[in-house]
Amino acid sequence: MKRLMYSGTGLLLLLLAFIAFNITSNTLLPGARLDLTEQKLYTISDGTRKILRDLEEPVTLYFFFSERASKDLVMVRNYARRVEEMLKEYERVADGKLRLHIIDPQPFSEAEDRAAEFGLQAVPLTQTGEQLYFGLAGTNELAQREIIPFFALDQEGLLEYELSRLVNSLARPEKPRIGLISALPLGGGMNPFSGQATAPWVAYEQLQQVFGVEELEADIDAVPEDIDVLLLVHPKTLSEAALFAIDQFVLRGGKLMAFIDPVAESDQSMEAMMDGMADGRASDLAPLLAAWGVSYDPERVVLDSRLGMSVGRGQGQLPARHIGWLEVEKQFMSEDDTVTAPLQLLTLASAGSLVPMEEASTRFEPLLSSSRHSALTPSSRFTRLEDPETLLQGFRADEQIHHFAARLQGPASTAFPEGLEGREPELTEAANINVVLVADTDLLTDRMWVQVQDFFGQRIPQPWADNGGFLINALDNLSGSEALISVRSRGNFSRPFTVVEDLQRQAESRFRESEMRLQQQLEQTEQRLIELQQNQDPTQLTELSAEQEQEIQRFLDQKLEIRKQLRDVRYQLNADIERLGTWLKVINIALVPALLTLAVLLWWLLGRMRRRTV
């Protein structure tokens, strides 16, 4: 009876202690949490802390969320709670320089009018007829405004970046100025095939959010003095005067980022279509690259069987391995450079190779590189490429690492020592230049890294690679602002099954070898049939000889045998993956509980042994 009373009293005390602990923690530590994710997705980054602590003038944030309208939307309310907690953490870290107002815009209220005045997006709820506000507006002492019209659920991975970008924009009224020269329609244009207007590229829209962008002509004779960073995208139409102006801009300390390409697949200009050849879509900075100590062949593209993307070939067909479209994973990026350190995945299409010259005075620091399963191929192979697997025919890796992007720093000389058309160069050398070169332009196109959805008239980008982050990181770095770099590209909530992908890649390789062997045998047999028919009597062409029948039967037998081998390869692929899944289930369902049980038993035995010794 006493034991029962003690046990009941103990359970009651434990229950009361548990309740008291929850009340105390919710009161004193409302935002406390333990972040066990590998990328620390729920922890405010150092870049955000720097932005908040460096605020010179107060920033005011207005968080609008419709509490009553969202009472039945559990996922929306959970996300709103996370946004509110993060904003409160921002307010705490800013130490008085950031003021937060949480507003519930009731229908027909002044708060709702205020939300509409800021330009926030109201989403109608069909089940209640009410409107849901879930956005953020911010102002600074100069009455400038920045907004996030609506927090989309599928953009949770970019939450900290969007909040920090908004605060940083209000804290830095004068945005760094980017001078843009491009032969591609980054800002939107006209589709030459459909005649319809095209939307701006997402990378360009993000560029405008962070920087002041001034578009320059391709025949400029001088870079404006107020330009902080010069951005070149596919500069295939630059005049010699423009090259001279860029040369002098870099030598006087101007920062440059240039995207060149042996095959710009997004180049739909009239010149490229009329030319019909790969070199009609190539761009180069030949005299400048030579002066900076870089070799680049605009007629050669990097193929990589290790990094090749899997692309669809239509309904009913197996996906193809495109070894000209590459997925550059983190291990092939520079971990020492702040531009690429926070990134996880970049995708490239028909990229070129940058090679440092031995006699160069500049330091060549690779940013993006290939694996050793790579080789160079003529860019002409990409002209009207229909089946990407044709790139595998005759492919042999050269066991070299090719560099897609690099940073150039150090002393450099002018590419125009004699001047230009009577114009003497103001500078002939510089002690240190800072240039970022990228041998691909297609990585900036939407199809290579982001999917855009329409959300009540608002374009919502859903990135699946870090191409946009790479562009903004590099320009942030070159313009002298690095605070947002550690914040960007932290939103990779999906974790790929890399082991399964490796198994699929290996099986596809075996499948492809068998398929090519079958194709070769088919061609040989057809050639043999043609030879037999040439030796046959013309009056008996419709009849098959015994030799032809034997040849056909032999080929059919071989074809059936190879098809059986292909089925075996596929079965082995599924068997390897299923075996891996079985082991994972055993580990999670049986092994982990067994280890925990064993640990508890050992703890109990050790306790008994201690009590006996006492």
Automatic annotation (TrEMBL):
One Pfam family in the UniProt entry: ABC_transp_aux
Domain DUF7088: 38-138
Cited InterPro entries: ABC_transp_unknown, DUF7088
Keyword annotations: Coiled coil, Membrane, Transmembrane, Transmembrane helix
Recorded superkingdom: Bacteria
Domain ABC-type uncharacterised transport system: 175-474
Coiled coil: 504-565
Transmembrane feature ranges: 583-606
Keyword set includes Ligase: no
Protein name: Gldg family protein
